[in-house]
Each structure stands twice: as structure tokens, then as C-alpha cells.
Amino acid sequence: MEEALALVSAPVPAPAPGPRPHHRAAPWHRARDIAVAAGKAAPRRSHRVPLAQALGETLAAPLAALTDLPSFDTSAMDGWVVAGPGPWRIRGAADGILAGHAAPAPLADGEAVRIATGARIPAEATAVLRSEHAHADEAKALLHAERDVVTGQDIRPRGQECRSGDQLLPAAALVTPAVLGLAAAAGYDELSTVPRPRVEIFVLGDELLAEGLPHEGLIRDALGPMLGPWLRMLGAEVVATRRLKDDAEALLAAVTGSEADLVLTTGGTAAGPVDHVHPVLRAMGAELLVDGVAVRPGHPMLLARIAAGKHLVGLPGNPLAAVSALLTLAEPLLRELAGRAGGAAATGPYTAALRDEVHGHPYDTRLVPVVHRGDRVVPLHYNGPAMLRGIAAADGLAVVLPGGARAGQEVEVLDLPWGELGAGEGCFT
Ligand SMILES: Nc1nc2c(c(=O)[nH]1)N[C@H]1C(S)=C(S)[C@@H](COP(=O)(O)OP(=O)(O)OC[C@H]3O[C@@H](n4cnc5c(N)ncnc54)[C@H](O)[C@@H]3O)O[C@H]1N2
Ligand code: MOO
User: Fold this and answer.
1) Residue 408 three-state SS
2) Residue 209 in domain
3) Hey, whose CA ends up nearest to atom 4 of ligand 2?
4) How many A from CA of 272 to the centre of ligand 2?
5) pLDDT, tens digit, for every residue of 342-374?
6) Minimum-distance ligand to the CA of 268?
7) Closest Cα to atom 5, ligand 2: which residue?
8) Alpha-carbon distance 175 to 57, whole Å?
9) Among 41-45, 274-278, 369-373, the range of highest mean pLDDT
10) CATH code, domain carrying 133
């Protein structure tokens, strides 16, 4: 302890004695708004990447078609392409016209030729007959239709889906596998996207073990294995997750040396003798944008601007408090930095009715793990600040305002990024 206090004293200023005053705690919605504003104020970035690397990023500019789609009149079916009314004289080679072939010779009125799905329609053709709706006579000279033929049937005209230059998707659209397919069809080899924000994670704590069972006051690090994958699901590139001892000098060196857009620290946010995050931020001359939030769990969370366009989010060490801070401060900031805020992926919070009553905190907002069941959300037990058992069975966090919420009351819900995978039936409710 002596040693730890000595380390904090020079050159990093020691924390103020006694508990940190709470007058600076921002209301929960205000804290999120500040995180959004911090993200919006950061410089916009974009890069050009091959299609395969763009997955999960957002479009930096609208996606305009580089070609008509389809780029030529094309057959929608395997069968016969005909000109004029039938019956038709069967023309030419047995194979007919195949997809990928050069322009076929024009059809004369009264002619039919075999055609494959996706093949180019010859000039003067009027319709395509599916093979199952037509038959040739025994001599294979004449083709007869087996049902009425409508002009233009089963021909996809050039430009049916889009014309070259048409806007296919707006800027900020999330690049999904379907978007990669559309971009390729529309002629793109590369896309201009917003790069994933780079995040570096520093997990603080002398008491943390990287493997094995807890023993002699040491506990497993629950945040290192959780945060990287979670941040990737939020669209971040995690450059590293490093465990640091409770050492102010080491933390200062790590934070100042980081090239990430967002540094995440875990632990050390409170006012204990080895809680070095505040003193390190002071030593760096960082600007504290949020210093405590009126939310349970996680109230010592903080957000600081540590350099132009670079931020630090301090997550409290209690694991559920860290999740609360991740979703309160890091998620909205990253959504802005990743350019996801304006796109269709930005569904934002919504409301749902609680199945059961949730007791409130007298002054602070509570974030409570819930799981969707039908049109209701069920609050989960094991939601204490040090517990992950509730959140591990959850697919959302309910925002319970001071005073609590009755059964049946609508509350705001923050989806967890794996919600669509579905949470298993838990025995926790
Ligand atoms: N005097 C006060 N003490 C505390 C206050 C306060 O307002 N005044 N707030 C409490 C609250 S609320 C929280 S939350 C914690 C926040 O603590 P820190 O951010 O400083 O975190 P630590 O003290 O380092 O750790 C707290 C707790 O979490 C465990 N921990 C830390 N890292 C991990 C990890 N990676 N995996 C699993 N568990 C972790 C650590 O062992 C502690 O048990 O402060 C309260 N105190
Ligand atoms: O933020 Mo603390 O999690 O209330 O224990």
C-alpha cells in the first residue's frame, strides 16, 4: 500500500482524500448525450477497402450504381426466346444462347431459339417461353406454346433494377453481406467506408488472474475476455487488450503511448488508494467530459478527451458496472465514430413493458438485465454490480428511472448486440 501511494505521488498527483463528491454525476440520459456529442465532434475519417474488408463498416458516401442492372436484356428462365406470334421455326445450334455469351444474332419474326437463364436476349425478340410451357414437333422444326404468350414475359429488361448513377444505398448504411453482394453486382471492387474505430483496452488490477481458479484473494479477470469481443460486435477494431498492474506510472505510459481512437480502462475509477485513473487523467491534462453518472451499477464511470479526436472511457471494475459504462458511454461514442449513427442499423433504444416490478434507486437510474419473452421483458436476478450471471442470460438492459417501475410499465430497453441470436431459456427469472 505504501509503495502504491508513493507511486501515485510523483509525478502523478494523488487522488483527493475521502470519497469523491457526487455533485458532478451526470444524469444517465445526459451522459449518453455527451458521449454522442464527443463522437460527433471527432474528425470524420474514410478509407477505400476491397469489398471483403468492408464487412461491418459503414458507407462513407452513398452507393451509386456503376452500371445498369441488369446491364443487358436478359432471360429470366430456361426455355425458348421467340419473336412474334407462334408457332415458331426453331433456329440454329442445339445449345442455343447461353449465359456469358457474346451478343446473339437478332431473331427474325416467327423464329425461336433455345435460351438459358441469364443469357442475352437477341434483338427483335418479344418473349421467353419456359421449357415446361412449350414443345417442339417431332421433326424439331416447329415450336408450339402450351399457354398464352404475353409480350415481354420472362424478359428482364436492361436497367430494371437500377440505371447507372442511381443511388442504391445512402451514406452510413452498414455494410452487410447483402450490401457486399449488391456492390459487386453494381460493379464495385472497393468501397469507401468509415474505418472501424480503434480501441485499446487496459485491464487494471493486481488481484486479477488470467487463468485457473480464484485463490488467496486473487480472482479471475472477467473483463479482458468479455470486452474485446463485445467491442468488435459494436463495430470497433480492438488493437489490444493488456493487463496492467495497479501502477500509476505504467497506466500513464500506456495511455499516453496508445494510438487508439478510444482507450478503455477497467477498474481504478473510484477513490481507493490504487485507483489511478483520475490522477493519470489529471497528469495528462485530459478534459473530463463525464465524471460519474447517476446510474446503478457503474456510477464512477467516466469519459475524457485525452487528445484531439482521442477519448478514454473509464469502466468501473465491478463487472456489471463495467457493462453499464460500456453501454452508457462507449457504445454511443463508438456508434458515432464508426459512422453508424445515421444508418438503418441505428435502431436506438425502444420501449417494452416489464413483466415484473423493478425496485428503483431513489435518485439514480438503474440498468437492469432483461430477457424478451413475447411482448414483455423479464427482469433477471443476479443483477448486482459484481455479478455477470444475470447479464449472461440477458438480451437487453432495461432503463429503470429513479423510483422504480411497476409490472406492465413501459421502459426504455437497450439491446445487447447478440440479441438477434436469441438468449437461452434461463432458470434465473
Ligand atoms: N469510497 C468509495 N468506494 C467505492 C465507491 C465510492 O463511490 N466510494 N464506489 C464503488 C463502486 S459503485 C464501484 S463500481 C467500484 C468501482 O471501483 P473501481 O473502478 O475503482 O474498480 P476496482 O476498485 O479496481 O474494482 C472494483 C471491484 O471489481 C473487481 N474487478 C476489477 N477488475 C476486474 C476484472 N477485470 N474482472 C473481475 N473483477 C474485477 C475488483 O476486484 C473489485 O472487487 O468502487 C466502489 N467503491
Ligand atoms: O457502480 Mo457500482 O457498480 O454501483 O458498484
Assistant:
1) coil
2) yes
3) 297
4) 14
5) 654 455 668 999 999 999 999 999 999 999 999
6) 1
7) 385
8) 6
9) 369-373
10) 2.170.190.11
- Give the separation between CA 9 and CA 317, rounded to whole angstroms: 22
Q: How far is the CA of 104 from the centre of ligand 1 (A)?
A: 74
Q: What angle do CA 330, 336, 342 make, to 5 degrees?
A: 135
Q: Is residue 57 part of a domain?
A: yes
Write out the residue range of the structural domain in which residue 354 sits: 350-421
Continuous segment of H or E residues that includes residue 353 = strand 350-354
Residues 64 and 173 both lie in one domain:
yes
Distance, C-alpha 54 to centroid of its chain: 12
Residue whose CB lies within 8 A of the most ligand 1 atoms, among 208, 251, 276, 318, for a mutation test:
318
Q: Let me know whether 33 and 52 are in one domain.
A: no
Q: Could you tell me the CA-to-CA distances from 29 to 143, 226, 369 in Å, in that order?
A: 72, 25, 18
Please report the atom of ligand 2 found closest to the CA of residue 320.
Answer: 3
CATH number at residue 204: 3.40.980.10
> With 0-12 CB in 10 A as exposed, 13-18 as middle and 19+ as buried, what is 29?
middle
Residues 150 and 60 in one domain: no
Same domain for 222 and 174: no
Q: Please give the tally of structural domains in the chain.
A: 4
Asked if pLDDT for residue 429 goes beyond 70, the answer is no
Q: Do 190 and 57 share a structural domain?
A: yes
Q: Would you say residue 429 lies in a domain?
A: no
CATH code for position 376: 2.40.340.10
- What residues contact 405, with CB distance under 8 A and at least 6 apart? 354, 357, 358, 360, 398, 411
- CA dihedral in degrees (134, 137, 138, 140; nearest 10)? -80
Within this chain, do residues 202 and 268 fall inside the same structural domain, yes or no? yes
The per-residue pLDDT of the chain, averaged, comes to 90
**Does the C-beta of 366 come closer than 6 Å to ligand 2?**
no
DSSP 8-class letter at 427: S
C-alpha 316 to ligand 2 mean position (Å): 7
Non-local CB neighbours of 293 within 8 Å, separated by 6+ positions: 25, 26, 27, 28, 31, 299, 301, 325, 328, 329
Ligand 2 within 6 A of 298 CB? yes
